[in-house]
Write a structure and sequence with these properties.
This protein is of the alpha+beta class and 192 residues long. The protein has two domains: 75 residues, Ubiquitin-like (UB roll) (Roll); 96 residues, DNA polymerase, domain 1 (Orthogonal Bundle), CATH 1.10.150.120. The protein is 35% helix and 14% strand. The strands form two sheets. A five-stranded mixed beta sheet has the order 2-1-5-3-4, with helices on both faces. It has a two-stranded antiparallel sheet with strand order 6-7. Strand 6 and strand 7 form a beta hairpin. Helix 2 crosses helix 5. The longest helix has 18 residues. Bound molecules: FE2/S2 (inorganic) cluster (FES) (2 copies). The site of one FE2/S2 (inorganic) cluster has 12 residues, from loops.
Length: 192
């Protein structure tokens, strides 16, 4: 069965078992190995992707449910040589250790910040409540997200903008660059 949907703003066609897990389609059929599998049972959030902008566990979703919709994976956030502001904050604050939870954390955090979510510690912890981390104890992750959300950045034109705006801008620019290269260009650094 043919299923057509957008992945990181590019139209993709999957032809196969409509009940194959979206997680497996992304990793095996499209080579987007940034999305990780942890529990495989909807408990850990390692497989988090954005479906029409909302964080979901891709291990629980059959690919047929993505028909006509927009999927975003961690590869859309930044390129290895050009990390997004959020990714940089994780790097600077030690928000990633083994990295298994990191792609899901980044997407849950990005969705929260893009939607204009509050940036106090409690709200950030709620936003990543579905993402489990066995390494960091969450302190560094929360610190990373708060840092990305609060730190004003100066653009080339000298105008200070918030990181929420930067995240939107980064995403558009990265996706534009990605579409000019290849769909797999950003997956190298996160491949397992
Ligand atoms: S792998 Fe999907 S929730 Fe754990
Ligand atoms: S960094 Fe290892 S599970 Fe979170």
């Amino acid at each position: 069965m043919k299923i057509i949907f957008k992945v990181n703003l590019q139209e993709r066609t999957y032809d196969g078992d409509p009940f194959k897990r979206l997680l497996d389609v992304l990793r095996e059929d499209f080579g987007l190995t940034g999305t990780k599998e942890g529990c495989g049972e909807g408990e850990c959030g390692a497989c988090t992707i954005l479906l029409d902008g909302q964080p979901v566990n891709s291990c629980l979703i059959p690919v047929c449910q993505a028909e006509g919709r927009g999927v975003e994976t961690v590869e859309s956030l930044g390129l290895p040589e050009k990390l997004s502001s959020l990714q940089k904050a994780f790097l600077e604050e030690g928000g990633a250790q083994c990295g298994l939870c990191t792609p899901g954390m980044l997407l849950s955090a990005a969705a929260h910040l893009r939607s204009g979510g509050r940036t106090d510690e409690r709200s950030i912890r709620q936003a990543i409540g579905g993402n489990l981390c066995r390494c960091t104890g969450y302190q560094h992750i929360v610190k990373s997200i708060r840092k990305a959300a609060k730190k004003p950045r100066r653009t080339k034109s000298g105008v200070c903008i918030s990181v929420k705006q930067m995240l939107k801008r980064d995403r558009k620019q990265i996706l534009k660059e990605c579409s000019q290269k290849s769909t797999r260009c950003a997956s190298r650094s996160s491949a397992v």
